[in-house]
Specification:
The structure is a single chain. This protein has 471 residues and is of the alpha/beta class. Helix content is 32%, strand content 24%. The termini are far apart. Bound molecules: zinc ion. Residues 264, 276-277, 310, 338 line the site of zinc ion. Zinc ion binds next to helix 7.
Length: 471
């Protein structure tokens, strides 16, 4: 006796052919060694890939060549102008009470120090509120250290983002931010700070390892003055040319309808950007490669998009969205993989009202119902949690235009231990987990692209160019 399908899903979906195709993709992915080899080409052969760097250019050419070699359709580069921040030479040491080097990394977008660096006393705070409650001149002419233990990325990252601005408002000459992560082995984690405002002085901003932050905090708590010398050669050059990389598996019935799957090709300028987000790029590339190799063309076209400049600008995501000229009526869904390749657990769906960040509850419910109907196929991989809350940086602009966004999810047990640090290298990627992630992503992308119905109902119609009331 067939189980009654959930409301909103016909008993015919997924049909036997789609089910078989998904199972073939999973089988091929679980036996696959190509994805890991490809990731090692990117990580070991090219290395990290900051926007504006020569290595990002090499990665763009490498990815396009790989897609052509895979036999994908419509392989192309989509031009994007990206910010070009350069770290330069940098170092920091505690000069008092005794000389000790500090493990630091300047934050993306930061200005450098004046030549010769900055030497100043350190004021340690554990929150913005604590900084604001200090006597008016307490931070003036000093270096503010935010020693804020990691709670969640979303909660703690604001000290990296807004630390410089808050410090400048209190007259600080530089800020240090404890690594935004649960663990460091004296490994500082970089990342972008928010753009400087126009009114406050632009002061340098750097991450320090958890160990160094706690050492300086212990000393000041004992009443021992801490003095630090900071030198940073960071600067911003004119915007550089770069490209998103795009390739497709053409749909067999409705080739003009699109399901996007992608990750971001750029990374920070330390480590290899292996988990963030080399794996996301390779998972997207290999998903379409497997479909192409097995001759599995879903009803709709699957478009692999490797965005650039996720880390410090989001210009690649914006360029892709802008290229649609407001018309997402043919975009059925967009998948993003930017949570590493630890054990896969499932997928999160987000559907927003056009032009806003608020949820379109009706379309979300439709989409979740359809995703949950597929979940049993993913139970064997442990990747069958289909929940709401989807939305990552590179599909954000598409979601704001009304496209259903699906985030690939993993346990992220250690993700933030490595994230944006020198430790994010290929050894952190388990080849077995990579294969399981590939199996989950390739199969779900296929099923969403093959579903006769759009996942979350129709995407918003194209705005009319000369509708009533327009001029
Ligand atoms: Zn990322």
């Amino acid at each position: 006796v067939a189980a009654t399908p959930p409301r909103g899903v016909t008993s015919a979906w997924p049909d036997p052919a789609a089910r078989t195709a998904a199972e073939r993709l999973m089988g091929a992915a679980l036996a696959d060694t190509h994805a890991y080899l490809r990731l090692s080409e990117l990580c070991d052969g090219i290395g990290n890939r900051l926007s504006g760097s020569e290595s990002l250019d090499r990665a763009v050419q490498w990815a396009a060549a790989a897609m052509r070699g895979d036999g994908l359709s419509g392989v192309r580069l989509q031009p994007v102008m990206v910010p070009h921040w350069v770290r330069g030479e940098e170092h920091a040491e505690m000069v008092s009470p005794g000389p000790q080097p500090l493990a630091m990394l300047g934050l993306g977008r930061s200005v450098g120090t004046p030549p010769g660096g900055i030497t100043a006393d350190v004021v340690v705070v554990t929150s913005f509120e604590a900084l604001d409650s200090l006597p008016a001149d307490r931070a003036r002419g000093r270096i503010v250290l935010y020693d804020v233990p990691f709670k969640s990325y979303g909660e703690t990252v604001r000290y990296r983002g807004a630390g410089a601005e808050h410090g400048a408002r209190r007259g600080a000459v530089a800020v240090l931010v404890r690594t935004v992560g649960p663990v460091s082995l004296r490994s500082p984690h970089t990342g972008a700070m928010a753009a400087y405002g126009d009114t406050l002085p632009k002061i340098p901003s750097a991450a320090v390892s958890i160990e160094d932050a706690e050492m300086m905090h212990r000393l000041t708590a004992r009443g021992v003055p801490v003095r630090v010398h900071l030198e940073m050669g960071a600067h911003t050059e004119p915007d550089a040319r770069s490209n998103n990389v795009i390739g497709e598996v053409r749909g067999r019935e409705r080739p003009d309808e699109i399901v996007v799957v992608g990750g971001h090709l750029d990374s920070w300028d330390v480590g290899q950007g292996a988990q963030d987000d080399g794996v996301g790029c390779v998972l997207a590339m290999e998903s379409v490669r497997l479909m192409q190799r097995l001759g599995l063309h879903p009803r709709r076209t699957v478009r692999c998009v490797l965005w650039v400049n996720e880390e410090n600008g989001g210009r690649g995501a914006k360029a892709y969205a802008d290229s649609l000229h407001g018309d997402v009526s043919h975009h059925v869904a967009a998948f993003e993989s930017d949570g590493g390749a630890e054990r896969p657990i499932g997928f999160q769906l987000g559907v927003r009202r056009v032009g806003s960040d608020s949820t379109d509850a009706a379309r979300l419910a439709t989409g979740l119902t359809r995703l949950k109907a597929l979940a049993p196929l993913f139970a064997g991989l442990g990747a069958d949690q289909m929940t709401d809350g989807g939305g990552d940086a590179d599909i954000g602009p598409l979601m704001t235009m009304g496209v259903a966004g699906i985030s690939h999810r993993t346990t992220m047990e250690h993700y933030f231990d490595w994230h944006h640090s020198r430790a994010d290298m290929l050894d952190k990627v388990d080849p077995v987990e990579l294969r399981k992630n590939l199996a989950a992503l390739a199969a779900l992308v296929y099923l969403v692209a093959d579903d006769p119905e759009p996942l979350a109902g129709p995407s918003p119609a194209a705005p009319r160019a000369h509708g009533p009331g327009t001029h």
